[in-house]
Amino acid sequence: xxxxxxxxxxxxxxxxxxxxxxxxxxxxxxxxxxxxxxxxxxxxxxxxxxxxxxxxxxxxxxxxxxxxxxxxxxxxxxxxxxxxxxxxxxxxxxxx
Amino acid sequence: xxxxxxxxxxxxxxxxxxxxxxxxxxxxxxxxxxxxxxxxxxxxxxxxxxxxxxxxxxxxxxxxxxxxxxxxxxxxxxxxxxxxxxxxxxxxxxxx
Lengths: 96, 96
What we know:
2 copies of one chain form a homodimer. Chain A has helices at 16-29, 60-63, 69-80, and strands at residues 4-9, 36-41, 48-52, 55-59. Chain A is of the alpha+beta class. Chain A has a single domain, classed as Glutaredoxin. In chain A, a hairpin with a 2-residue loop joins strand 3 (48-52) and strand 4. The interface between A and B is medium-sized, with 19 and 19 residues. Chains A, B: It holds the Pfam family Rdx.
């Protein structure tokens, strides 16, 4: 089976909407690459973490912030379809 | 583990957004009652079906329509927490 991306979010923190937005971004970009995105309300306050088939790829507490959507897509791409280009957003920032 | 509600939708039909909306409705109402909602892009054209732990509770082809959100919540409630009241939307329509 294709991988499942889990978005574990703290419902009391009001993070359902941003998680649902991220789910839509992920599903639009990786329609063919994933089995689906699981929105999972956490029982742990302040938790926002992203797992692929149970393996953590991002944790808000460890990072000290939420992921940028571009960054999140790159992290997911690296696991589910490493050859996939994410288009113009995938380029490195220009050297100053 | 608490039940997982799966929304299987046809991505080519453009049904991601309504599915993501339904996911948010379900997660707002059943935060404590479900493990989560899985948004699953179907490989079958025209498919929209809802499963709880793999057991189908609604299928667009069989019903000939999408579910009303109230109806969907009642179907889910009957499985995940039959005692739960869904508030004013849960009352029967008045007898004419």
